[in-house]
Amino acid sequence: MADAAAQEGAEQLLHLKLAFLAGEPPACILALARKAGGGSITSHVQNFLLENFTGTNVDRRQNSTYTTTIFKRVISEVELSSGVVIDELYEEFAQRMLSKAKDSLLNRTDYMYKEISFLSSTYDNVSSRLISVVARLSCSSNMLEGDTGCSLWPSSLFLSEFILSYPKIFSTKCCFELGSGVGLVGICLNYVGASKVILTDGDTSTLANMKENMELNNLCIEQEDSEVLKESKNKVECKYLSWEEVSESDLRGYQPDIILGADIMYDPVSVPHLVRVLSMLLRRDGRQGETKGKSGDEFETEGPVAYIATVIRNAETFNCFAKSAADARLSAINITSSAAPSDFLPHMLSYDRSSVQLLKITLLS
């Protein structure tokens, strides 16, 4: 019993640390801190916060304002509950307030460094619960200003979990993502052994941030005439792609086996262009795909296939996509229930995976 309790306590603290690194909202961090303390933020938990939320390994890239906000809310909650705030936490918070304007890099509020840790779905104890993959990302915290391409969306997390849950679908395949944003899906595709990963976006600032994120994860950005990169297994292509302007000849050299997209049905104006691009990528010279499965298998295909994860925020926009897809002779099947991915992100309380739908799209013969 004691061992089981210790294991559960260690797992709760692990979730707390990973949630912080993932940049979860302060309210979620406090909820996990309470859980780790058995209902309140104890001195033990406060010490854990200080040890794991500060120091050069964290603050060097983590948004300092974010950390300070968490400490402020922890102190306020403990004081309101008549609990004991440890002296070291008071001192750390006071020092942060005094040096608030000292380092302009740490006080950047437009971008925030996050580490998204996908936990292994099978384990015997906390020490053997290995982290499958860690994605290091620079993300925008400025969505209200329209900087959505550099933000982290639930559909991107869901599609990443799907890739990690079914690695054989993507292993040794050429994978092409539309609207890649921060590049999280590409990092997971590289991890499961995709033969080629092509990430695209139609916004130049998003593309620049995406390339920086690939470098953060030690992935090489493929360039022409680079023999070193051609030999590297950890490489991706980051390409500018405007759905409105791209032609079939522009896409002729790619011939992807799998096309992916996360939260790319956001504007009814762009839907016809999205469907046109999907049609071109799925109609690759009548080529037969290599995805195999048993008869009736959810992943059995006879040609290129697209997997699109989306949150239906506007029914009119989704219906517009469904009609445009049908007119273009695309089959769009909802496989959310039958192909539900494993939960690799139990520590990310803000991630509502139940809101995401997964579509499998193929070209009708």
Automatic annotation (TrEMBL):
Pfam families tied to this protein: Methyltransf_16
Domain of life: Eukaryota
Name of the molecule in the record: FAM86 N-terminal domain-containing protein
